[in-house]
Amino acid sequence: MSTMFAQSRPFSGFSIDDAEAARHFYAETLGMEVSDVPGMPGMLLLHIPGGNQVFLYSKPDHRPASFTVLNFPVADIDAAVDTLIERGVRFERYEGMGMAADARGVHRGGEGPAIAWFTDPAGNVLSVLQDG
């Protein structure tokens, strides 16, 4: 097996339709560090704890991802959901997953952790999930 990627620092990316709306949402609503990509207007980097990054790129024909593109593990999902609701975030409800959603949109009771899905301004699906 080749070690071609042994020293690589992979990163993920997904499209957005409005860089300024995305910047505001990720920086102000979610409290993340966001920076411009030098020399690339409309492109942003989300700085993830641990030194990783997620590349957000403006795309004129953007179509929101139909799957979760970014998950945020949290120590207390209820506190995280309450804070996000206070900041104007609306949570999604997905039926037929073997999990029941509470009044705020936290899905519990499946095989995995408690999880709540929401979207960014471009319609991409994100989640907060109970860590541990």
TrEMBL record:
Transmembrane segments: none annotated. Gene3D superfamilies: 2,3-Dihydroxybiphenyl 1,2-Dioxygenase, domain 1. It comes from the Bacteria. Residues 8-131 form the VOC domain. This is Putative enzyme related to lactoylglutathione lyase. Keywords: Lyase. It holds the Pfam family Glyoxalase. CDD domains: VOC. One of its GO terms (molecular function) is lyase activity. The lineage of its organism: Bacteria, Bacillati, Actinomycetota, Actinomycetes, Streptosporangiales.
